[in-house]
Design a protein that fits this description.
By secondary structure, the chain is of the alpha/beta class. Helix content is 34%, strand content 20%. The protein is built from seven helices and seven strands, in the order ββαααβββαβααβα. It has a four-stranded parallel sheet with strand order 3-2-6-7. The protein has a three-stranded antiparallel sheet with strand order 1-4-5, with helices on one face. The radius of gyration is 15 Å and the shape is globular.
Length: 163
């Protein structure tokens, strides 16, 4: 597959009551198709949040937004545009970061989490100096991270998301 130059096509999700910001790297082809975060049916993100917050797994974008809002979670991606091959985070090059400060200025974000190592590395390299805020790296919920069990995701994400 060849590299494509792509630009992020949907807005961050947040409001003034957001207290947690979760950053991915860049939307997958499936997420771009459904026009919202973690759209691939094998991505464990929504199952993980539903489990942690003892809720039903959301299926529609509106249900997903409701879950996020109820738990004061903002979502965005580190990258605004990049060259990428398919959904391969490891292929990202020529990354242009989003203005993460946009959310930090609008909401009292108390913790910033990244969904996986690539998001953390990109945030650390491209955004941390501008925001002045470190991020906590959580294991990726991507199906590409199949070696990470759901139990490990629950333990590591839960340590940061649950009181």
């Amino acid at each position: 597959m060849p590299y494509e130059h792509l630009t992020h096509t949907f807005d961050p999700f947040y409001d003034k009551s957001s207290r947690i910001l979760i950053l991915g790297s860049f939307p997958s082809p499936k997420s771009r198709e459904v026009n919202f975060y973690y759209g691939h049916p094998q991505n464990r993100f929504w199952k993980l949040l539903a489990h942690l917050f003892d809720e039903a797994v959301p299926s529609s974008v509106e249900e997903k937004k409701g879950l996020l809002a109820r738990h004061h979670i903002a979502l965005w991606d580190v990258i605004e545009s990049c060259d990428i091959v398919g959904a391969s985070d490891s292929s990202i090059r020529h990354a242009v970061p989003n203005d993460i400060g946009r959310i930090l200025r609008a909401a009292d974000i108390r913790i910033l989490l990244t969904n996986g190592a690539t998001a953390w590395n990109l945030y650390h390299r491209c955004c941390e100096k501008q925001t002045g805020r470190p991020a906590v790296r959580c294991p990726s919920t991507s199906p590409a991270n199949a070696a990470c069990t759901m139990e490990r995701l629950i333990a590591e994400w839960g340590a940061h998301l649950l009181p």
